[in-house]
Amino acid sequence: NLVSNAYVYLTADDTVYSRVTIEYEGKTYEDSVYPYEFTLPLNGVDSFNATVKAVNKSGVTVCLGDIKMNK
Description:
The chain is 0% helix and 61% strand. By secondary structure, it is mainly beta. A hairpin with a 4-residue loop joins strand 5 (47-56) and strand 6 (61-70). The chain is elongated and about 40 Å long. The mean pLDDT is 92.
């Protein structure tokens, strides 16, 4: 049985970032309200690759890294 969703959250709060985005499967998901959390559809795939970016309190976009998971 394949998992149908991935749940991603950041432990950093709104004193650090004002907005967080995840780029996954050609789409960008955005959250600008703490807690920063996402539920992403996996659509029956057995691997997951996404890029997480955030806007810090100075207004600068920073790449927080890539998420890679396999079944």
